TrEMBL record:
Signal peptide segment: none
Domain spans labelled DUF7343: 4-56
Record-given protein name: DUF7343 domain-containing protein
Species name: Geoglobus acetivorans
Pfam families to which the protein is assigned, alphabetical: DUF7343 (PF24034)
């Protein structure tokens, strides 16, 4: 492996912690001058950020994880096209909603767009972020598998699980298989009755399928939340990003690059969503309640903020 590839790999693994420049020398076995050349090149390409720490030492991050950028965590789903189109932020794509929302709670990212049920549950318990609004509604469903065993795959504490629980009697759900990624949901189709999955995976799957909206009605799939410490420090930046996201024109090319899907796929599947819908706290409570997650109005109100 070339030294530059090694450096990038190390920084990907270190994520928000980054690495000291001296550490990169020690780990790679390259000379100080060679590491300096590599970092200068990566910095000019806009791929890394450096910050002076002690003496002549620098801490280095991949740009998306650096302290100097507003970081927005999202999942690999086309419901986030409007957010991606909203402004000059670093978008970090997660495979797992729980990890994404946890990083928001810990202040590693400034914003997170993830399933509303995930944000409500963690927001009530962790109290370090607030939900600013609904990003989109609908955009997911059940793709049927090879078995008729009553086992349905889903991601945990997600809109997928929420909807499956709401219609479990209609589908004959006997047991849940929990996955931590879309790839797991897709590979599980050989051994389960069905997988609850979001766009664009739902449309791409060449199997029998049915949207949740046809079985359970319209539902909020995801919400946008902001870390409270960032809100207190940078209220103007928060207001600007939220305002821009609500009026953004979809930039399919940018969304395609961030999400790693073909641009035509993004254009096609984004039609499954309604963006920036209005839901009252009472409506959200009723929808979540259908799945068996009972949350008081007071608790729900505690995690929302109007900006």
């Amino acid at each position: 492996m070339m030294f530059e590839e090694m450096v990038v790999k190390i920084l990907k693994e270190r994520k928000f912690d980054g690495a000291l420049q001296t550490e990169l020398v020690e780990i790679t076995g390259a000379s100080k001058s060679r590491i300096s050349e590599i970092l200068t090149k990566l910095e000019k390409e806009g791929r890394i950020a450096r910050k002076k720490e002690t003496g002549k030492n620098y801490r280095v991050w991949l740009r998306e994880y650096s302290e100097s950028r507003i970081k927005v965590g999202i999942l690999r789903a086309t419901e986030y096209v409007k957010l991606i189109s909203a402004g000059d932020c670093e978008f970090i794509v997660y495979s797992n909603a729980l990890e994404l929302t946890r990083d928001l709670a810990l202040g590693r990212i400034e914003f997170a767009a993830s399933p509303i049920v995930t944000q409500v549950m963690l927001g009530i318990t962790m109290k370090s972020f607030k939900i600013t609004g609904i990003v989109a509604e609908n955009g997911s469903g059940v793709v049927f598998g090879d078995k008729t065993n009553g086992v349905f795959a889903t991601t945990e504490m997600s809109a997928m699980e929420m909807n499956l629980r709401a219609i479990r009697n209609r589908l004959g759900v006997r047991e849940f298989k929990y996955c931590d990624s879309a790839e797991c949901l897709i590979s599980s189709l050989e051994s389960v009755n069905g997988s609850a999955i979001w766009e664009p995976y739902f449309t791409i799957a060449e199997r029998d399928k049915i949207p949740f909206s046809e079985m359970a009605g319209d539902f909020p799939c995801c919400s946008l939340a902001v870390n409270l410490s960032f809100l207190k420090e940078s209220e103007d930046d928060v207001e600007r990003f939220i305002r821009n996201s609500r009026k953004a024109v979809s930039d399919y090319e940018k969304a395609s690059k961030v999400l790693g899907f073909d641009e035509d796929v993004v254009k096609k599947t984004v039609k499954s969503y309604k963006f920036n819908p209005d839901y009252s706290v009472e409506e959200i409570g009723r929808i979540i309640g259908k799945s068996g997650f009972e949350i008081s109005k007071k608790s729900l109100e505690s995690v929302f903020i109007e900006i």
